[in-house]
Design a protein that fits this description.
Layout lengths: L1 E4 L1 E2 L2 E2 L9 E3 L5 E2 L1 E6 L2 E6 L6 E7 L4 E6 L10 E2 H19 L9 H19 L3 H37 L4 E5 L7 H10 L2 E4 L3 H4 L9 H13 L3 E3 L3 E2 L16 H19 L5 E6 L11 H18 L4 E6 L16 H10 L6 E7 L12 H9 L7 E8 L23 E2 L5 H16 L4 E6 L24 H14 L3 H8 L7 H9 L3 E3 L3 E2 L7 H8 L9 H26 L15 H5 L13
Parallel strand pairs: 1-10, 11-12, 11-20, 12-13, 13-15, 14-15, 15-16, 16-17, 17-18, 18-20
Antiparallel strand pairs: 1-7, 2-3, 4-5, 4-8, 6-7, 8-9, 9-19, 21-22
Helix pairs in contact: 1-2, 1-3, 2-3, 3-11, 7-8, 10-11, 11-12
């Protein structure tokens, strides 16, 4: 058994809230344990041997209120000082990330290194304190400074890698999960304004509410809109065991795995065959590692994952196949042993040879529910670092935080999810704080070169939105500060470096621009791609005429004109072949009518407004 003495403001904490708390073991995997708090002490009766740690929602001074963890500690008779152990663990994480991120190699990080020394001194002072209460007070100061320093380090490292990404021209997409019931012009106008692609949900409960009775009208409407608006489509999840995604009739087969598997196969086959020409990325399996509504065992869950990915890969070979993860820190595993820890599930999917292209990751914060408590930026960055070893791309399939601490009767929780109890980032949630979090999160996520896209959960605070006040717009479609910040960040990231813009504007081996302009004025060039009518793409036939050189008999104007047309067609075919080879799988599309390369959209020239926050 582990015991911790908890203190607040130098006094014994009599009312410690253990909501969201859990015990974890090796590799930060949660374990089953009984937690109790009484008389200023927290008791952890764990059911597994070995060293374990405690994670709980805790104040970190002005830095905020986060779900923080201690280090793994051995059992002993005397209780540990919780405040000191939280500071010790934070200091250890900072030291580890300084090494992992190579911050010793940056001269501009000297200030961060001095801050680290100051935080370490505060922690050492807490170890030297003569009384537990004094040690706790000094430990709280070290924890506050440590969390602040950790976020500074995270943003410093993110900005370094983000500059490299921008210089290399690596694209990143910004999207939004659409509301199937939303059809207002203001809603679609906001989508056009700020996003590169849309994510169209395809809940089984919506498309087949009764067995063998199908309803596709809502999904069809959004697929058609995306085609008209030239927006690439991410679709799914195709298979999700969340209760809100499952039709009621499916529970008849709750104890018949073979029948359930066959029904899932037919459902996925039907959806992919209907939309495979219109979808660039399929969210095939989502959150079955956490939402195990049918109490399937480990082997059955992995078999469903394998079958689903293989089927989609067969039916839509040009599209990306994605496995989506939710609750990425895995708190749910401490409550339900019929689930699978998220990173273990991801590792098994890779090691078992399942055919898929990328992982998806959902990150929600601000709700007092397992998986949705507030975490600091260093925890988020460390989580994303875990995916580098899988060798797969990563898409942030959904993210959201609140913009207000008041009750929200229109959210998915019916106004019963008090935002203040879910933690806070620096200060209580507000529209400005939401915008600051959006910018910081985008900087951290897109600094990872394997992160390919970021998708926001709700565009507006319409009825049923997931996180309270989590939309980028109010329910009247008035943009919040976070909408403007996301739009401006997207535009800034899309700006190519000046050297690259010049290289793109002046490809090698082309005549000077004044020569091409003169040819266009004289009518010798009819199209930029096809080149001149009477010669090759650089107008060599006309140059020979201008120089007065004797032309070959084959250079007769009629012959030259015909040869120019043939060369033009050959060049167009070559350009098309190169484009098909170079196109990433996510942009593959058999029918070019509804699908367009997102590069044309990502670099569209939307008028930018001044940035809200200068970092």
């Amino acid at each position: 058994m582990l015991r911790f003495d908890a203190y607040r403001n130098g006094e014994s904490a009599k009312d410690t809230d253990l909501a969201g708390a859990y015990v974890f073991g090796q590799d930060a995997i949660p374990v089953r344990a009984d937690l109790a708090a009484a008389n200023g002490q927290i008791s952890c009766i764990k059911r597994t041997p070995g060293a374990c740690g405690l994670a709980l929602l805790w104040e970190a001074g002005q830095a905020g209120r986060f779900l923080l963890s201690t280090a793994r500690l051995p059992e002993r008779n005397a209780p540990y000082n919780l405040n000191v152990e939280l500071a010790r663990a934070q200091l250890g994480r900072i030291a580890q990330k300084r090494e992992d991120w190579g911050l010793f190699d940056f001269p501009s990080a000297e200030g961060l290194n001095r801050e680290f020394a100051a935080v370490r001194k505060k922690f050492i002072d807490s170890l030297k304190a003569t009384s537990p209460a004094e040690a706790a007070r000094l430990g709280d100061a070290a924890l506050e400074a440590g969390v602040t320093l950790g976020e500074k380090m995270t943003l410093f490292h993110a900005d370094v890698l983000l500059k490299r990404r921008k210089a290399s021209g690596t694209a990143a997409g910004f999207g939004c999960v659409v509301d199937l019931l939303a059809a207002a012009d203001e809603y679609t106008d906001r989508l056009r304004e700020a996003f590169d692609f849309i994510s169209v949900p395809m809940p089984w409960k919506q498309t087949e509410p009764k067995e063998r009775h199908y309803q596709y009208s809502l999904v069809d409407a959004w697929i058609n809109w995306a085609a008209r608006a030239r927006k690439p489509v991410h679709a799914g999840p195709l298979l999700s065991f969340k209760p809100k995604h499952l039709p009621e009739w499916l529970y008849i087969w709750e104890h018949d795995y073979e029948a359930l598997r066959d029904l899932a196969y037919e459902h996925i086959q039907r959806m992919v065959q209907r939309y495979e020409r219109h979808v660039g990325l399929w969210n095939v399996v989502s959150a079955i590692h956490a939402d195990n509504s049918f109490n399937l065992n480990f082997d059955e869950l992995m078999e469903l994952t394998r079958m689903s990915c293989l089927l989609v890969k067969k039916l839509a070979p040009h599209a990306q196949v994605m496995i989506d993860l939710t609750m990425p820190w895995g708190e749910y595993y401490a409550r339900n042993q019929r689930t699978i820890p998220p990173l273990l599930y991801a590792d098994m999917a890779v090691q078992s040879g399942i055919k898929f292209d990328a992982f998806g990751l959902q990150i929600y914060m601000g709700v007092p529910v397992d998986g949705y408590y507030v975490r600091d930026l260093m925890q988020i960055s460390s989580l994303l670092d875990e995916f580098v070893g899988f060798g797969k791309g990563l898409h942030i399939t959904a993210c959201s935080v609140p913009s207000n601490v008041g009750a929200d009767a229109w959210d998915a929780w019916g106004g019963q999810a008090p935002v203040p109890k879910g933690g806070q980032w620096h200060q209580p949630w507000s529209p400005r704080l939401q915008a600051e979090w959006v910018q910081a999160f985008c900087r951290v996520a897109l600094s990872k070169p394997y992160v390919e896209s970021i998708c926001w959960r709700d565009l507006a605070d319409y009825e049923g939105h997931f996180i309270p006040h989590g939309g980028l717009c109010r329910n009247n479609m008035e943009p919040k500060l976070a909408f403007k910040e996301l739009r401006n960040f997207r535009a800034t990231l899309a700006e190519a470096p000046s050297g690259k813009r010049q290289a793109e504007a002046e490809p090698p081996n082309r005549p000077p621009i004044h020569v091409r302009q003169e040819r266009q004025r004289s009518g010798r060039v009819t199209d930029e791609l096809d080149g001149p009518v009477g010669g090759d793409s650089f107008g060599m036939g006309h140059d020979a005429e201008e120089r007065g050189e004797q032309q070959h008999p084959a250079a007769h104007p009629d012959h030259a004109r015909e040869r120019g047309r043939q060369q033009s067609h050959d060049r167009q075919d070559d350009v098309r072949r190169r484009a098909q080879i170079a196109s990433p799988p996510s942009m593959g599309c058999r029918d070019r009518r509804p699908c367009f390369p997102d590069a044309q959209l990502r670099y569209a020239g939307w008028r930018r407004e001044p940035r809200l926050f200068g970092h």
